[in-house]
């Protein structure tokens, strides 16, 4: 792997960049306010996509009732979106290079808005699933293209602050979605979950059309057809298997087959991409130590973020009897605190470097997760909201910082495919994290219930003694022996379910606790302030010596 000295401009053996024109966005446009216009424009798309994804989760029980469909069919609303997202994201880099980043960003935003309109008026569940796939095709490109636009518009010294501000929707939207979704489902209509995207998306389209400037490498960008086919098969089958594994069973023949196909094609995909001169996803970026470490930290942070968003509502709704809206409001402090801390972390990025920000965030995340792992059935809501707020601070320090440091020091021509790579892998790990934590909860709950049934028939255990005593009481009341045993077993085992469910959730949080400690160890290998400054200087030097682009430049192009 390359050392961080390579980031600072030291020579290293790596593949030759194709002799194609590169963007000039790094040099910055003549308009001094352009960079802030880009930031304001791309925030709309990012916030809308993440908000919609989390809001729809709340509406699934309502959709099941409205369309009179079983759970496995309604789950297609989520599965179709995730699959489309995972399939299109790797293509974002190539499409932006081939057709122009502004053009593809606006097309993606339009597709998402169009999909939202169609979802809101879907006449049946199959149509809703199809329109959600259209949403996913649009939403899958918005994040990587938005990141590329930001990195091209802001100079190295301001990227920490820029990505801190851009990170607000990344951490606020997942916690805000359940609140809005819960309100719409409880007081209005499920269709508003999609209708709310329309004004936000139209505003983003208008601003993007007026403010964004075209920049592309030109027609020399070639489509990696083997890479496209292999990525569609590998990412599609893996995401589908992960999405459906918890409900269908990880040992079912279909899930095992899909996982095998996905892993095999992904292995072939890696080999093919490493041999191509202009690959769909530039996997050689993982030979850069900083990029690979920051990516791993980002994956784990994503699991921590969406794991909390997944587990905490289950606890609040299933065990504490809260409505979706009430559960969303209790989790809301996570969004508020992370929304405050994320831009502050961005402002501190250039002052102290990513190492100490991520280290502090991961240690705080570990302590906070330990608190979640010891929640009880009667924990006060003030305690839960405090824990959620602290978690927001931790994630505000880590999540967006990893994205910024991963892309630091890359050449302008590498940014579209690098951001596609980051987002494609994060999509997989987000789905994997939620599925993993859900599987842990299910497995542990089954294990605790099996242990309780064994103890029930063991007179040496406390539960076994209580069972015998209760059977005797019921027999004295006139029940036959068999009926008394069945009634006693049902009463005792049923009373244990809430505590067993609580312990299962705690066990899942323990897993994320160890993951947070792993982040802390990895953070120590990231650049500090000095090495970050060296990398920034080297990147600026490469930009200043880059050949002028033959395609339309960012500084002179008009909106297309």
Descriptive report:
- The protein has 560 residues and is mainly α.
- The protein has 4 domains: 23-222, MFS general substrate transporter like domains (Growth Hormone, Chain: A, Up-down Bundle); 225-277; 282-441 and 506-538, Growth Hormone, Chain: A (Up-down Bundle); 451-495, no CATH class.
- The chain is built from 20 helices and no strands.
- The protein has helices spanning 4-7, 34-66, 71-74, 76-88, 92-99, 101-120, 125-153, 159-187, 192-195, 197-211, 225-248, 253-275, 289-319, 324-352, 354-372, 381-407, 415-456, 462-476, 481-523, 529-544.
- Helix 7 (125-153) packs across helix 17, helix 13 packs antiparallel against helix 16 (381-407) and helix 13 (289-319) runs antiparallel to helix 19 (481-523).
- The longest helix has 43 residues, at 481-523.
């Amino acid at each position: 792997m390359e050392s961080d000295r390579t980031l600072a401009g030291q020579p290293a053996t790596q593949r030759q960049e194709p002799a194609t024109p590169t963007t000039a966005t790094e040099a910055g446009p003549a308009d001094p306010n352009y960079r802030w216009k880009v930031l304001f424009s791309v925030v709309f798309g990012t916030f809308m996509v993440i908000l919609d994804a989390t809001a729809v989760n709340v509406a699934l029980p309502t959709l099941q009732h409205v369309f009179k469909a079983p759970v496995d069919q309604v789950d297609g609303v989520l599965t179709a979106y995730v699959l489309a997202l995972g399939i299109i994201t790797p293509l974002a880099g190539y499409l932006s290079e081939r057709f122009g980043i502004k053009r593809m960003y606006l097309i993606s935003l339009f597709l998402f808005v169009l999909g939202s309109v169609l979802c809101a008026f879907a006449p049946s569940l199959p149509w809703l699933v199809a329109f959600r796939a259209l949403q996913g095709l649009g939403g899958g490109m918005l994040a990587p293209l938005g990141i590329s636009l930001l990195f091209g518009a802001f100079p190295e010294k301001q990227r920490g602050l820029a990505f801190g501000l851009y990170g607000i929707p990344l951490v606020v939207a997942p916690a805000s979605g359940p609140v809005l979704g819960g309100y719409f489902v409880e007081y209005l209509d499920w269709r508003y979950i999609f209708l709310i995207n329309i004004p936000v998306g139209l505003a983003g389209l208008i601003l993007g059309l007026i403010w964004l400037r075209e920049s592309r490498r030109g027609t020399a960008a070639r489509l990696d057809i083997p890479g496209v086919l292999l990525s569609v098969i590998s990412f599609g089958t893996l995401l589908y298997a992960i999405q459906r594994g918890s409900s269908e069973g990880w040992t079912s023949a279909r899930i095992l087959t899909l996982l095998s196909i996905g892993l095999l094609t992904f292995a072939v995909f890696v080999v093919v991409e490493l041999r191509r001169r202009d690959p769909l996803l530039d996997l050689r970026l993982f030979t850069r130590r900083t990029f690979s470490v920051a990516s791993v930290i980002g994956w784990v942070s994503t699991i921590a973020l969406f794991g909390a968003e997944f587990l905490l509502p289950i606890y609040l709704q299933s065990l504490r009897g809260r409505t979706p809206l009430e559960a969303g409001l209790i989790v809301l402090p996570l969004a508020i605190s992370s929304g405050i801390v994320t831009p502050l972390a961005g402002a501190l990025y250039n002052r102290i470097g990513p190492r100490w920000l991520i280290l502090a965030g991961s240690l705080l995340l570990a302590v906070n997760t330990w608190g979640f792992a010891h929640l009880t059935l009667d924990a006060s809501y003030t305690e839960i909201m405090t824990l959620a707020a602290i978690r927001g601070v931790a994630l505000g320090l880590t999540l967006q910082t990893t994205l910024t440091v991963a892309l630091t020091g890359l050449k302008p021509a590498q940014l579209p495919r690098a951001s596609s790579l980051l987002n494609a892998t994060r999509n997989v790990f987000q789905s994997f994290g939620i599925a993993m934590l859900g599987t842990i909860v299910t497995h542990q709950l089954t294990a605790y219930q099996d242990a309780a049934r064994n103890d029930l028939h063991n007179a040496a255990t406390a539960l076994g003694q209580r069972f015998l005593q209760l059977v005797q009481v019921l027999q004295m009341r006139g029940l036959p022996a068999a009926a008394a045993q069945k009634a006693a077993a049902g009463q005792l085992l049923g009373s244990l379910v809430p505590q067993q469910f609580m312990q299962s959730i705690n066990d899942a949080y323990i897993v994320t606790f160890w993951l947070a400690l792993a982040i802390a160890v990895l953070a120590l290998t990231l650049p500090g302030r000095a090495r970050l400054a060296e990398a920034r200087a080297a990147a600026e030097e490469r930009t200043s010596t880059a050949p002028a682009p033959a395609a339309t430049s960012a500084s002179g192009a008009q909106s297309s």
